[in-house]
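Tokens as discussed.
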């Protein structure tokens, strides 16, 4: 299989982070969360995208997340 320099770079960065965390998964993710918080403007939002063909599921999601909001729309 052909070597992909981007994949190699990502794996190297992951290895460096793991080494920095002492190969402890809890420390690793705590480090990542700290870095996310220090660069909040660069972190992707988890706001859901609503597509027209998925509109029936949106009403169910609104009801589940905020029932009072759903009741007002009825």
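Sequence:
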């Amino acid at each position: 299989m052909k070597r992909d320099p981007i994949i190699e770079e990502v794996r190297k960065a992951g290895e460096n982070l793991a080494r920095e965390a002492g190969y402890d998964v809890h420390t690793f993710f705590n480090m990542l969360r700290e870095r996310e918080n220090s660069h909040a403007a660069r972190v992707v939002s988890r706001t859901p995208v609503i597509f027209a063909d998925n509109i029936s599921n949106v009403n169910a999601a609104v009801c589940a997340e905020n029932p009072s909001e759903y009741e007002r729309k009825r």
